[in-house]
Specification:
Blueprint lengths: L9 H7 L6 H12 L4 H11 L3 H10 L11 E6 L2 H5 L2 H12 L12 E6 L11 E3 L2 E3 L4 H16 L3
Parallel strand pairs: 1-2
Antiparallel strand pairs: 1-3, 3-4
Helix pairs in contact: 6-7
The structure holds FE2/S2 (inorganic) cluster.
Length: 160
């Protein structure tokens, strides 16, 4: 007893209860609902769907789209594919880290941004590339970063 309950997840749990090969779809749906997959929720899924917790943690750590940390309102994805790398993408990463005081995978203190690095996003002619959510910014230098971040910080404060 004493296990934490997550009534908002009941519809997802019920949909998959008793079925096989459902772990990845369940985790997707739960992450879409909650935003991330913290320990309490992993244990809840394990208990309810009778999947070993070790299997759940293994799947979450294997697939980069699952996260155990809360995510910011916007995801910054800096491409570290070859074309971007040789054009200085690491300097962009360093600039974002400095400006937001976060590391890869972390979220800024105000909850606006989560920093990720990606493989080639398919727009090498624009290298180096930063994606903010689904929008591409290309041919960047570190000096461009603050202007881009400001756009999203302003819109977050306006509630958009
Ligand atoms: S390597 Fe960055 S877009 Fe291709």
């Amino acid at each position: 007893m004493g296990a934490k309950k997550f009534p908002e997840l009941d519809p997802i749990i019920e949909k998959y209860r008793g079925k096989k090969g459902i772990l990845i779809p369940v985790l997707h749906e739960v992450q879409n609902r909650v935003g991330y997959l913290p320990d309490d929720i992993q244990k809840h899924i394990s208990r309810e769907l009778k999947v070993p917790l070790s299997k759940i943690t293994g799947v979450i750590s294997f697939y980069s789209f699952f996260t155990t940390e809360p995510q910011g309102d916007h995801t910054l994805g800096i491409c570290l594919g070859t074309a971007c790398y040789v054009k200085g993408a690491e300097d962009l990463v360093d600039e974002v880290k400095d400006q937001l005081d976060i590391s890869e995978g972390e979220t800024s203190a105000d909850g606006t941004f989560t920093l990720t690095v990606t493989r080639c996003v398919g727009t090498c002619s624009l290298a180096p590339v930063l994606m903010v959510d689904n929008k591409y910014y290309g041919n960047l230098t570190p000096a461009d970063i603050s202007g881009i971040l400001e756009k999203y910080q302003d819109s977050s404060q306006e509630g958009n």
